[in-house]
Design a protein that fits this description.
alpha+beta; single chain; binds magnesium ion; Heat Shock Protein 90; binds adenosine-5'-triphosphate
Amino acid sequence: MEILVAEEPGKDQLTIKIKDNGKGMDAETQSKVLDPFFTTRTTRRVGLGLSLFRQAARETGGDMTIVSEPGKGTLLEAVFQFSHIDRKPLGNLAETLMTLVTGNPDITFVFEYRGPEGDFRLDTSEIKE
Ligand SMILES: Nc1ncnc2c1ncn2[C@@H]1O[C@H](COP(=O)(O)OP(=O)(O)OP(=O)(O)O)[C@@H](O)[C@H]1O
Ligand SMILES: [Mg+2]
């Protein structure tokens, strides 16, 4: 799983990309995933992740797109207007990453952050070695 967070205040842009090599989605599934009541979870009847992600981007004048191929994986790309008053704060990225990594021990994460104060990269395969 690859996650990129890029803050570019100079371009007034925040970009988030999330790429996986999971099961992917066919065209029919993709047409339904932005519906908050579509989920393949069996534990609850709502699937909010993608619709809230797109809504958050759109509230800033940006957008979120999905590119997916069955059997290959999925790429989500969201662009936000960085300075928009409705742009949600990133919050504590370190804690979020910690939760992701420790909660999913079988998944290898490559996390990249790019921002005005520097870049950061974490590849959990290096830690596992
Ligand atoms: N990266 C992905 N690869 C394959 N299928 C996906 C992916 N992301 C979403 N889906 C499919 O789209 C459905 C809706 O996704 P969404 O993130 O909106 O909700 P959810 O994951 O079901 O629940 P929630 O995000 O609220 O925990 C999922 O149940 C799954 O079937
Ligand atoms: Mg989800």
